[in-house]
Amino acid sequence: MNTTMTRALGPVLAGLSLVGLAACGGGYERQDAVDELVEGGFTTEQATCMMTELETSIGTDRLGDRSFLGSEELTAEEEAAVTDATLKCLVGS
User: Fold this and answer.
1) What angle do CA 67, 9, 56 make, to 5 degrees?
2) What DSSP line would sit under 51-81, residue for residue?
3) Is residue 31 scored above 50 in pLDDT?
4) Which is nearest to 23 in space by CA: 89, 67, 85?
């Protein structure tokens, strides 16, 4: 992974940790996740795009799983999904 992508993923993973915190109350709530990303510095368009991409690639069950960004590491497939969403929604916007 190149340096630019590594730098881009930092805020994304931080934002997704906010999503994980929003989900800890009992499952994934899309609007809460979008709102948390916006509060973390994403535009509404970027946050909506990220959550749409992650819902499609990872699934809402996994996004609602508190361990998604807790002690458990992302799988290679999940990391690729986050990278793809980042390229599409943040780098490309």
Assistant:
1) 60
2) HHHHHHHT-HHHHT-GGGGTTSPPPHHHHHH
3) yes
4) 67
Amino acid at the residue 79: E
Cα–Cα distance measured from residue 20 to residue 77, given in angstroms and rounded to the nearest whole number: 18
| Domain boundaries, given as residue ranges, for the chain | 3-91
Q: Where does the pLDDT of residue 49 fall: very low under 50, low under 70, confident under 90, or very high at 90 and above?
A: very high
**Which tokens go with 8?**
């881009």
Question: CB 50: neighbour CB atoms within 10 A?
Answer: 24
- Is a pLDDT exceeding 60 seen at residue 25? no
Q: What is the pTM of this model?
A: 0.70
